[in-house]
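queue> pop job 88
queue> type: inverse folding (structure -> sequence)
queue> payload:
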């Protein structure tokens, strides 16, 4: 059977998408075997780590392993809560005298750490000593300026093409589709720098609900956790996503849940535009109301909340 050009295009796009995702898994740095330590007490954690209600104010250590290759980024963004006191990479103490105290204590933007001198191909061990001065404590580490940014762009480009084709198939006007894709790009950008615990409410309770279902394969009792009185459909679907993320050993399953929330928000907007089409026949008015929904500030904030 002879294949037409469209079929060849779909095959090529899917192949590029799979190859990009595979290449991304090779160059992206994931942290594993992460431990939190205070004196003789230690426990396993995941990055990003956040302890909103520590029992007391004290200095702590976080140690994590990561695999590095020549194609990986050698620049990390370190975001501590509260202040980094020392960094040890592969038993080498990194000189922090070039950083100001404000940079080492910047819990919002963090600071950039260059690893070229001590990073090794293969397994690396990174240890940070952090001082806590009250309130929440934690740490986030991101690899930046690597090839993964270009791969993300390629993956998103292919996804946006298929989103455009799908919405066109639903007879949505091209101008509305372009606005829709611009809104999706804005939300993805917002997600790229917004951790799961930012601008949210009782997120740990929601995650506890999701993890309970993922680990026990049943819904908890109404008083089983802080958020367990909520209707379970969202939490059941999220538990499936969380289980897949942990099975694939994704380093930050909570970020995966943020992407799932964005997916649900996208489906909501598509159906909303289709409903608007039923009642609004004027194309300019439809574009206006669709744009208001797509770029409504609270919908953007809520689009990535767990």
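queue> result:
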């Amino acid at each position: 059977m002879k294949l037409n050009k469209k079929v060849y295009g779909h095959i090529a796009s899917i192949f590029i998408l799979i190859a990009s995702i595979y290449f991304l898994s090779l160059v992206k740095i994931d942290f594993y075997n992460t431990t939190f330590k205070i004196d003789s007490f230690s426990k396993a954690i995941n990055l990003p780590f956040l302890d909103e209600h520590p029992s007391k104010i004290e200095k702590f250590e976080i140690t994590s392993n990561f695999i590095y290759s020549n194609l990986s980024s050698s620049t990390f963004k370190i975001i501590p809560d509260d202040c980094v006191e020392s960094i040890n990479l592969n038993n080498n103490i990194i000189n922090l005298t070039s950083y100001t105290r404000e940079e080492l204590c910047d819990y919002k933007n963090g600071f950039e750490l260059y690893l070229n001198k001590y990073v090794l191909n293969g397994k690396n061990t990174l240890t940070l000593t952090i001082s806590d001065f009250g309130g929440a404590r934690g740490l986030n580490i991101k690899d930046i300026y690597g090839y993964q940014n270009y791969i993300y762009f390629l993956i998103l480009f292919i996804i946006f093409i298929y989103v455009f084709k799908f919405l066109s198939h639903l007879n949505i006007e091209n101008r509305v589709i372009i606005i829709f894709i611009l809104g999706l790009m804005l939300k993805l950008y917002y997600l790229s720098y917004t951790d799961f615990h930012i601008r949210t409410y009782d997120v740990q309770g929601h995650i506890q609900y999701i993890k309970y279902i993922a680990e026990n394969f049943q819904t908890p009792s109404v008083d089983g956790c802080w958020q367990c009185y909520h209707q379970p459909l969202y939490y059941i679907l999220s538990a499936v996503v969380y289980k897949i993320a942990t099975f694939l050993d994704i380093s930050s399953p909570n970020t995966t849940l943020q992407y799932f929330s964005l997916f649900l928000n996208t489906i909501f907007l598509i159906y909303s535009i289709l409903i608007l089409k039923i009642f609004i026949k004027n194309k300019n008015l439809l574009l206006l109301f669709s744009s208001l929904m797509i770029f409504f500030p609270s919908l953007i904030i809520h689009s990535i909340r767990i």
